[in-house]
Amino acid sequence: MSDTLLIIEDNEQNFYMMRFLLEKNGFHIIGAENGRKGIDMAIEHLPTAILLDIQLPEMDGYAVARELKRNKALSRTPIIAVTSYAMAGDREQILAAGATGYIEKPIDPDTFVDQIIRYLPRRRDNQEA
């Protein structure tokens, strides 16, 4: 059984690139184009991890991360911010909102999957064995 990852991303090109790289490496991908839909999908599917853009329509990634962490069923689900926000303090702010990790865009296709795997203990442990 493959891990299901939820990508909350409003940019179609970014979503496509992440989905392509992750599916090629055996992940099952579901997606949402805004924060509200992402929260609903997370509750419905209980993914292994959530990849979250910060700049989203309707609800920004900070609000999404806080709401996801308040949900008991999702409180331990890794949230990885994948964002072009790279100003001083942005990383700390999203981590304080509940994100587990932070990856800057543009993503590097050569390292992206490994960056995600390090937040997935079962996959990471299998890779190190």
Automatic annotation (TrEMBL):
A Gene Ontology biological process term: phosphorelay signal transduction system
One Pfam family hit: Response_reg
Q: Which UniProt keywords apply?
A: Phosphoprotein
**Residues recorded with modification 4-aspartylphosphate:** 53
Q: Which InterPro entries match?
A: Bact_response_regulator, CheY-like_superfamily, Sig_transdc_resp-reg_receiver
Report if keyword Phosphoprotein is assigned: yes
Per the record's keyword annotation, is RNA-binding included, yes or no?
Answer: no
Domain Response regulatory stretches = 4-120
What's the protein here called?
Response regulator
Q: What is the lineage of its organism?
A: Bacteria, Pseudomonadati, Thermodesulfobacteriota, Desulfobacteria, Desulfobacterales
